[in-house]
Design brief:
single chain; 194 residues; alpha/beta; Rossmann fold; six-stranded parallel beta sheet; two-stranded antiparallel sheet; 9 helices; globular; binds uridine-5'-diphosphate
Amino acid sequence: MMKEKYLGVNVSPLTYEGIISDLRVRLAEGKQSTIIAVNPEKVMSAQRDPEVKELINASTYQIADGVGILLAAKIKGGNIHSRVTGVDMMAKLLQFAESDGHSVYFYGAKEEVVTKAVANIQAKHPNIQVAGHTNGYEKDEKALVSKIHQSGAKILFVALGSPRQELWIRRNLDQLPNVQVFQGVGGSFDVFSG
Ligand code: UDP
């Protein structure tokens, strides 16, 4: 897939539907995929910190979350014409998880927030398989990773804020071979809990 580049930072030109159909193929091939939201703050942070740039560029899909990216695309004459926000991408992945039977794990946010978000999601998607959830203030990372691994989750949402969630995903990707889709979702559990 051709990526657009903004100040050295990759952005995927795929729409929500494009990402889902690409993911379907990657899942069938047993490949792991990571989704990261890109906004002007992250592009600027990537200018200061080569590790941030590398972290973004090494992700499978860099979604154009901020309107600033759209504006840059317009000025540059780029191929990105609409936003792909983190929270809407998560909503599309939940639909996909329900329709294709992939179980989902939710990690992050405060206990009451993640519990309420999961309850709301289950009410909206009665056939979704929830592998589990853990709040984002859990200190024992090793135990958590083992719990997620044993849960059999295929899709993992990590809501710790940036760059904490992206670093967490990178650190634990290899320990979670059963998880095939990772998305760093920032404050999205707070949105789903409302
Ligand atoms: N959070 C967490 N653990 C932490 C710090 C933050 O689970 O150690 C959660 C916090 O409760 C909130 C989310 O991470 O739900 C941060 O959302 P924010 O909107 O700040 O992230 P952004 O989208 O700006 O990266």
